[in-house]
User: What shape does this take?
Amino acid sequence: MFKFFKLILKLFLGLIIIVILGCIGVGLFVNPNQFKSTIEETVLAKTGHVLNIKGPLSWKWFPMLSLELQDVTLQNTPPFENPANPLFSAKALRTEVEPLGLLAGKLAFNIKLDGFNVILERNCKGQTNWDTLKQNLSQPKSSSATPTTNIATPTTDTTTPTTDTKPPTANRTPQILFNGISAENGQIIYHDEESNKHYMIDHLSLKAENLFKSVIGGSNPISLGFHIENLNKKPLGNLSLTAVWSLNPGLTEMNIKNVSLKFQFPDGKTTELNGEAEIQNLKESPTILGKIESPNFNIKPWLADLGITDSPALPSSANIKLSFKYLAPQLEIAALNIQLNNKGTLESNFKINLDNPSLLGLQLQGQYTAKQLQIAQFQINELKGNIGLNQGVLSLAPMDIQIAGSAHHATLSMDLRGENPKYTLTQEGHDFDINSLLTLFNNKDKLDGKTRYNISLTASGTSLEELRRSAAGQANFEIVNGHFHGINLIGLLKSTQTGVYTLVSALTRKENINIGSTIKSQLDQWKTSPTDPNAITPFNNAKASMTIMSGIVSNPDLSITHTDYSITGKGTFNLINEAIQYQTSALYKNNPYPANDEIANFLIQTPLTIQIGGTLNDPSIRPELNNYVNSALAFGQKNVVEKFIDKTIDKTFNKLLDRINK
Assistant: This one.
């Protein structure tokens, strides 16, 4: 874009200077309309383009000596000839000459444009309609190009008063100095058939006056404003710029201060930038050094461009400060500091290659550090790593995360090339207390223990719901020396085993016992105990591997071990509605009965099936006591029958032995 505006400025100034060259010899007291053809011929000779001055030419003496041309057009050359679409046209073009400059032998002039139109075209072969003009303007200057008073002096009685305008040296011609430009109501149309790009800059205004003052060390204001539209007049954005600038006497360095730049876009992206810049080595390879500040920068629409929808959990605005260095085509951003609105700070430095400033062509590399970053209800103490952008893929790798007293390592890439951004995440953490992390998600005192995990995940979408539905990947978790909060599983398993043992023992002894009441009593304990905030269940080790597909987490190998019990199971967790569906088998291993007690030995070898449902924040735990009791009763009855048979055989055998012995 910078090269584009630089080219436009060169074309403007080159064109207008050539027009002035054709007008210098016009006598002050002569009707300037006599010289239309002379001016048109001079411009054709200098540029190769046909100039048409359809309106009148007029002189003005006050407040400044000036020549004004009305209804001016500069036609295109082959293969772009089209009278309806000239390269340049203007309703009015006025040049103002500083009278004091004439007395000093210098022609210092200002340019004023009103209602101008520029049409720039590139065809499918890569040819542009400004090639001829650019070629002629870049040719070395010859002595014949220096304007003399004889060019426009007519052979009539009314001649140009050359004696009043010549410097003391008789053979010296005026030195031409461009002193300022003022342009209003401008329009620039750009057609690029080769790359199928079409833009229009409308409502263009530019003021840069009294430039001679800046050249000799003073400073001057400059202002620029325009609207960007497509060819259907659909607004794409507005820009306004004000600044104060100056050049050093050697014309090798420019200083720009009090810069105020404002972008406005239809999608709500409004950016205000304040700053200053220094341009070094102007004559060879310009280097721009500068500082920029943007107070109250609106982040929301920029996050939306990355597929991140508006959320109260995310920062909405920020104060941004940075310093930069630009040496084409590389832009270096140093000391970037972003103060998010009460949501932390971000510091970064990076380099951008602007050879191809499109999303797919932009290349970026750098580092960043974020501190006290607030996202939703939790805070990241520190986040740092590398950042890169190449061919539309943004990469944050590696990332080191310090959160809730724990360290995590991750990589994240965002593919921005499609309609919906695609995310790829890998993350691992180890040797941290999971309770501290869960507390950040409002799940305090649900689970604790030293934890390690690794995750590999992909997702796509522009909202949290879309990301959840598209999530896919693998994960592994292991927690050691931890506790489940809200349930005393050991107490429940012990009570259940005791109750079933008492029930089976009574039945085998043919004692009266209420089976229904015993089972109901045990079920009631399972219903109330999970909500007890003081209840905990210790464990030595808990681990699981998971597969994520379409937002469903599947775990086929849950394993929890402890000296008093063990649990195995499998189930699913729905990331969309947070629903849990698990089936587990629990064994209580601490047998309080004699080692030769067959019913007790049966119970410690028979797992109790437990169904877990509900949600993560409100789980329901339901043991299948009916099956457990029925299997125990079946064993008890079988054991009674076997003992009866054994006793009968023993008695019969003993009776036979007694008879034989008699």
